[in-house]
Amino acid sequence: MRIAYLINTYPAPSHSFIRREIRALERRGVEIRRFALRGHGAPLVDPGDIAEQERVEYILARGPARLLATLGLEAARAPLRAARALRLALWLGRRAERRYLRHLVYLAEAAWLARRCRAGEISHVHAHFGTNSTAVALLAAALGGFGYSFTAHGPEEFDRPEALALGRKIAGSAFTVAVSAFGSAQLRRWAPAADWPRIEVVHCGIEPGHFPAPAPLPEGPVRLVSIGRLVEQKGQLLLIDALARAARDEDIRLTLVGDGELRGALEAAIAARGLARRVTITGWVDEARVRAELDAAHALVMPSFAEGLPMVVMEAMAAARPVVSTYVAGIPELVRPETGWLVPAGDGAALAEALVALARTPRPALAAMGLAARARVLERHDIDREAAKLAALFAGAPARRRAAPGWRAEPAAVPRPAPR
């Protein structure tokens, strides 16, 4: 099989799971051509990301003139398909708060992708994230006559399902992937029941070989690590408040691994609460450093307000570290009482209590929780096992595409939430 993968920004520090998925598919003999709309922008630090960047074709790098010329060539080659794709782009623009120009740009990007797929004898495009990358895949499929699928991760798709025309994207796909049962349920809210069979659950995964015998828990004060973009939805500001409360009773240290727009606010909050000697912010680091930070910690803390199913939770569990997180999205499907603590999202007092409970848990009991976490994640999230599911879906995509509803503008009877 020869499949095109399309991502908005790739590679990026927070998208190593896509690289992992592609590698697992390639191990199964699936040929993957990598396309992205744009690069990450900031310098990459992980050697794997740097090497991957060399294999990606960046569509926007072709420049407006070449993209428009390609759109003209596609229109001349297949006028009827081009007219349908234009109509679809305008419909998508109207749904997205009348952002017509943006979706005409997507159409030009789609023309380039369709032409490259035809030249490379690629018959299927798979997009990650049900946002602009899937819009381009949908339009490219309309232009090129091939199939597409996409993986919806959340939370963005679930925050703006109507503006993103999520139901239309599901209806036109050969299949749509959710990364958790929760994600599958959210997708079904925006698709008619006739399209529910298109929705499949394929977990993001870890490579077990990268997590050999786990390191023992460190000696000394309790050390926590939190890994991810420094943004509001990850809840790091609330974590600083909770740590300030918990630190009144227990000696707890925290390392924040990642970077983002909230870094300045976090540094100010750390200073204001007198936690400068307890909290470290590393910025973005490579996978080896992430693993070292997990090995140096007693637990991962992930106080997110909104999520899909975080890869860092899986990685921490594979490293035999308990997890403190929140009851949101797919996290409760993975983190159970025997593997960590879950608290209501946004409840700083409950988060502080969980941190104190963790600090007071005897180390042998904490180690046993970590081993239970490791067993659970290795059972549920082996990337080769999940890639086998995805490869089977790709193999069956042509038949499933023939059952898709074609190029109609909007799926019929898409459910809408009842007014309160």
TrEMBL record:
<feature type="domain" description="Glycosyltransferase subfamily 4-like N-terminal">
    <location>
        <begin position="47"/>
        <end position="208"/>
    </location>
</feature>
<dbReference type="InterPro" id="IPR050194">
    <property type="entry name" value="Glycosyltransferase_grp1"/>
</dbReference>
<protein>
    <submittedName>
        <fullName>Glycosyltransferase family 4 protein</fullName>
    </submittedName>
</protein>
<dbReference type="Pfam" id="PF13692">
    <property type="entry name" value="Glyco_trans_1_4"/>
</dbReference>
<dbReference type="Pfam" id="PF13439">
    <property type="entry name" value="Glyco_transf_4"/>
</dbReference>
<keyword id="KW-0808">Transferase</keyword>
<dbReference type="InterPro" id="IPR028098">
    <property type="entry name" value="Glyco_trans_4-like_N"/>
</dbReference>
<dbReference type="GO" id="GO:0016757">
    <property type="term" value="F:glycosyltransferase activity"/>
</dbReference>
